[in-house]
Design goal:
The complex is a heterodimer of chains A (225) and B (224). Chain A is mostly helical and 225 residues long. Chain A is built from nine helices and no strands. Chain A has one domain. Chain A is globular and about 55 Å long. The two termini of chain B are 31 Å apart. Classes of the chains: A mainly alpha (225), B alpha/beta (224).
Chain lengths: 225, 224
């Protein structure tokens, strides 16, 4: 039972500390807003042209914003050596991993939900009919990014150049997620029938399952070494 | 019963050997004080016994459990109070206690936490964020955590640092309490005067080698 308690308490702690400090979410939102502004001024497009490139722009912004959040996930544990306390938890480290994945997922997903209306406004998108599908795509892709990113955040936290190493190691690993997310988002924004891009949603779901399971098992090794 | 047993533990970082062939046995009810100059390897030894680091050579047992194979059980029965105090700046004292103990599978009541905080003298600051605590208050809070956890084996890294006279006495009182309940304590310290009243046995760690010293030696400043 303590396994689930550990997950719950890790999520609670990350949410409470973030709500009080607002360090992670504010820096993520600020960064993403800059990306949106730069892209919106770089391209002056009609709605059709925007639909062709906007999926890529959305996921460039979400991926790099997510990396900011993931980087802070474990670097926050360096404060007062708290990471050592996590290492000494008398429970499978998988519980800590799942708690961190859940917290990271929530941060990134919330930021995505906050930012998406900005894309709609700046790029003049009409997304009312596809909103539920878009939310599903965001959910699956963010879960994949959080699952792998949490592992790499823990892996790089003790490295001196961790801010550089995290994106270098993480981005190649999540290329399948980004490609699938871009293709699925493009399909949804174009109003294509679901069967035309459902294979990308399946790929996202498969990636999420495989990488969550693999990262769960590897996390024990990462924390103990 | 033997609480801590190290056999020929060595630890190297690259070519630099921090600990060399350390063998040490501590019985339940004993407090072993570890002295030595900066860089002698005291914290490294404590971190190995706290299951945070692996020895390069040798093996150790805590409460008869293999330190390399039965870490989870050891961690449930042991507590390490380190320099960092393992506290989150944006949580208050009660939240820090509740979080740390929940990860150990313990659920202290609000009353338990209040009693522990009162006992270490920071009950009035229970709702204050740790960010605003002094180093001594953080040390007292870490002590309150140990009081609620009631570990069988207690590892302390410089327990008297940052504590005032009253805080030092509270720390010593808690250590005596653990010893009277058959707990075992291993602490590293530079302060032989503060450690002497609670020390059962003592050792000097120098250049990675441990030599046991008499309690009489703690009374003089020659060794230190």
């Amino acid at each position: 039972m303590n396994f689930f308690n550990v997950i719950r308490w890790i999520v609670w702690k990350d949410l409470v500390t973030e709500l009080r400090s607002r360090e992670t979410i504010s820096s993520m939102v600020f960064f993403a807003l800059i990306v949106i502004l730069i892209f919106s001024f770089s391209f002056s497009m009609d709605q059709q042209a925007a639909r062709e490139v906007i999926a890529g722009i959305i996921w460039v912004a979400f991926a790099f914003t997510g990396i900011i959040g993931l980087g802070k996930s474990f670097s926050a544990e360096l404060q007062n050596d708290c990471i050592e306390a996590l290492q000494m938890v008398p429970e499978s480290k998988g519980a800590i991993y799942l708690g961190k994945v859940a917290a990271n997922f929530l941060f990134i997903f919330v930021v995505e939900i906050l930012l998406f209306p900005m894309f709609v406004i700046f790029f003049n998108l009409d997304v009312v009919e596809e909103i539920s599908l878009l939310l599903l795509i965001f959910f699956l892709a963010t879960l994949g990014l959080s699952a792998v990113g949490t592992l790499f955040s823990a892996l790089t936290v003790q490295i001196r150049a961790r801010e550089v190493m995290l994106p270098i190691l993480l981005l190649p690993m999540v290329v399948p997620v980004m490609i699938a997310a871009v293709e699925a988002t493009k399909g949804a924004l174009n109003g294509d029938p679901l069967p035309m891009y459902s294979q990308w949603l399946e790929l996202l779901a498969i990636f999420d399952v495989i990488f969550t399971v693999v990262s769960f098992w590897m996390f024990e090794f990462v924390m103990d070494n | 019963m033997t609480a801590i047993a190290c056999q020929a533990i060595s630890k190297s970082y690259g070519h630099y050997e921090v600990l060399h062939d350390i063998s040490l046995t501590i019985q339940e009810g004993e407090c072993f004080s570890l002295f030595g100059p900066n860089g002698a390897g005291k914290t490294t030894l404590l971190k190995i016994l706290a299951t945070l680091q692996r020895p390069s050579e040798g093996r150790y047992e805590i409460l008869g459990l293999d330190g390399l194979k039965e870490k989870e059980t050891i961690r449930a029965n042991m507590m390490f109070l380190a320099h960092g105090a393992y506290l989150y700046d944006d949580l208050n004292a009660k939240e820090n206690l509740a979080f740390a103990l929940a990860l150990r599978g313990q659920t202290p009541t609000d009353r338990d936490m209040k009693l522990a905080l009162d006992r270490v003298g920071i009950g009035a600051f229970a709702e204050m964020k740790i960010r605003n605590y002094s180093a001594g208050m953080k040390k007292r809070l870490a002590l309150a955590k140990a009081m609620l956890a009631k570990p069988k084996v207690l590892l302390l890294d410089e327990p008297f640092t940052a504590l005032d006279t009253a805080g030092t006495e509270i720390m010593r009182e808690y250590i005596r309490e653990r010893l009277s309940e058959n707990g075992a304590v291993l602490m590293s310290t530079h302060d032989h005067d503060k450690a002497r009243p609670i020390t059962s046995r003592a050792g000097m760690l120098n250049q990675g080698m441990l030599k046991e010293i008499s309690l009489e030696a703690l009374k003089s400043d020659e060794l230190f």
